[in-house]
Specification:
By secondary structure, the chain is of the alpha+beta class. The protein has a domain of 35 residues. Helix content is 25%, strand content 32%. Strands 1-2 form a two-stranded antiparallel sheet. It starts with 5 loop residues before the first helix and ends in a 13-residue tail after the last strand. 0% of the residues are buried.
Length: 53
């Protein structure tokens, strides 16, 4: 299991709280958290075209 300290836990929680849609990736090397990546998804809904009769 990865070694956790308060700073790492806070950074992970902050990343989770900031994101509505997306992913948080935690990279671990030799049992230590070495990297935290977050990717936020933004989707745009295209309005349907108006049909002219």
């Amino acid at each position: 299991m990865a070694n956790l300290n308060e700073s790492k836990v806070q950074q992970i929680l902050t990343a989770l709280k900031k994101i509505n849609y997306g992913s948080v990736l935690i990279t671990i090397h030799e049992g230590e958290i070495t990297q935290l990546d977050s990717t936020e998804k933004n989707r745009f809904v295209n309005p349907k075209p108006v049909k002219h009769s």
